[in-house]
Amino acid sequence: MLDVGDGQRLYWECSGNPDGTPVVFVHGGPGGGTSPAHRRMYDPSVYRIILFDQRGCGRSTPHIADGADLSVNTTWHLVADLERLRQHLGIEQWLVFGGSWGSTLALVYAQEHPDRVRGLVLRGIFLCRPQEIDWFYRGGAAHLFPDVWEGYRAPLIAADGADAVRAPEYDHVAAYHRLLHCGDAAIELEAARAWTTWETSTSQLLPRAASDGSGDSDGVGDRFAVAFARIENHYFAHDSFLTGRAILDRMDRIARIPAVIVHGRYDVVCPVTNAWELHAAWPGSELHIVPDAGHAMAEPGITHLLLQATDRFRP
User: Fold this and answer.
1) Among this protein's residues, is 88 annotated catalytic?
2) Distance between CA 6 and CA 141 in Å, rounded?
């Protein structure tokens, strides 16, 4: 457990070769947490594998489900935490690996600390722009998953009425923010479950028996759902704290860093245009569009290319 200030302690772990090339796994969400499966993306004979849980989720404390303070949970707190972990471990440079929100945080971290990043492996690109939040949380993706969208809208309709929710000006993210912090534990939990289920149910091209939490965490129990929904919604209600520092506007900072980008053709959570635009702004990057995959890291085509990428970054 690493004390990063603000009353926050981060869970971290190292596995693999203690003298190997350092690689840090940046999980998604925000609020997803790590799992043992995430160690399996790297050859343990050559990599020093570092996993950590971001503030408020996973095994970090205090947990959002236990009332952790969201005011000290922003993109810039997480960037500072990641850099503090690097310093704590005595690492000069590391390979940074992230998917979904993890790709966002990996990119922002690299732009702030380019000299500490030897390479990037990114999956399911999420640039946290308003149009991306509109697409997934305010009705765009509903055209592909109208049945699942009904479950997402159910707590909103119960609170505000069907006519209000159908109105063009209705803000689903703001309404969920109100429900997730309304003070009624039953309503908060129902909203957290609906928010989280929407994402986990749309993350894979073909449904499987077990979801991996949008490719970012194992299990979707109540404790996970509360952290996942509250943290995600907190970020998205505040434009992910990136106002004035948009990722694509600062690509010159990491132009020299080698990168492999892997993205599913049928990614509904983060449309493939995100990866296309990132690659266009990053001439040195390598883009792979997986023809038979959605968003989740566990989809076979995505897993295969990510493993190839980490093997290529071996010393």
Assistant:
1) no
2) 37
State the average pLDDT over residues 89-93. 98
The answer to whether 211 touches 200, Cβ cutoff 8 Å, is yes
| Domains within the chain, CATH numbers bracketed | 2-128+241-312 (3.40.50.1820), 131-240 (no CATH)
3-state SS record for 99-139: ECHHHHHHHHHHHHCHHHEEEEEEECCCCCCHHHHHHHHCC
| 117-123 vs 94-99, strand pairing mode | parallel
Q: Do residues 86 and 58 lie in contact, with contact meaning Cβ atoms separated by under 8 Å?
A: no
Residue 217: per-residue pLDDT: 40
pLDDT for 213 beyond 50? no
Residue linked to tokens 């600390």: 113
* Candidates 60, 100, 103, 214; catalytic one: 100
Q: Mark whether 100 is an active-site residue.
A: yes
Distances (CA, A) of 75 to 30, 90, 91, 112: 9, 23, 22, 12
What 3-state class would DSSP assign to 98? strand
Res 33 pLDDT > 50: yes
- For residue 144, count CB atoms less than 10 angstroms from its CB and return exposed for 0-12, middle for 13-18, buried for 19 or more: exposed
The residue to which tokens 């990114």 are assigned: 122
Tokens of 135: 């697409």
Catalytic residue status for 69: no
Catalytic residue among 211, 214, 267, 285: 267
201 vs 182: CA distance, rounded Å = 25
Q: What are the helix (H) ranges across the chain?
A: 75-89, 101-112, 130-137, 146-160, 162-166, 172-180, 185-201, 222-237, 273-280, 300-312
